[in-house]
């Protein structure tokens, strides 16, 4: 299966039997990101978390024992 990275437009080839390939084939909303782009985003996100400038778009709600 040929896939294209969303960010850098690099074309990669995935084995058809990989879970990622099946996920991309069956659910078109999922997108593919190459390993270099994924690592770059991961490093920058971790750096922002350590700097304190990272905020989630949603807050985790704690479940109550009463519900």
Write a compact overview of the structure shown.
This protein is mainly alpha-helical. 37% of the residues lie in helices and 9% in strands. The protein has one domain (2-49).
Care to describe what's here?
The structure is a single chain. The protein has two helices and two strands, in the order ββαα. β1 and β2 form a beta hairpin. The protein is flat, with a radius of gyration of 17 Å. The protein has helices at 19-26, 35-51; strands spanning 2-4, 11-13. The protein has a two-stranded antiparallel sheet with strand order 1-2. It has one domain (2-49). The chain has 67 residues and is mainly α. It is 37% helix and 9% strand.
Q: Count all strands and give the number.
A: 2
Number of helices: 2
What fraction, in percent, of the residue positions are helical? 25-40%
Give the number of domains.
1
Radius of gyration: 17 Å
What oligomerization state is this entry in? single chain
Average of pLDDT: 87
Q: What structural category arises from helix and sheet content?
A: mainly alpha
Distance between the termini: 46 Å
Lateral strand order in the biggest sheet:
1-2
Largest β-sheet summary: 2 strands, antiparallel
Low-confidence stretches: none
The ordered H/E elements are EEHH
Strand composition percent: 5-15%
The coarse overall form would be flat
């Amino acid at each position: 299966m040929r896939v294209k990275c969303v960010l850098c437009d690099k074309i990669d080839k995935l084995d058809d039997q990989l879970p990622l390939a099946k996920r991309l084939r069956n659910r078109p909303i999922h997108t593919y990101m190459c390993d270099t782009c994924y690592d770059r985003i991961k490093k920058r996100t971790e750096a922002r978390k350590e700097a304190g400038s990272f905020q989630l778009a949603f807050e985790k709600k704690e479940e109550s024992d009463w519900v």
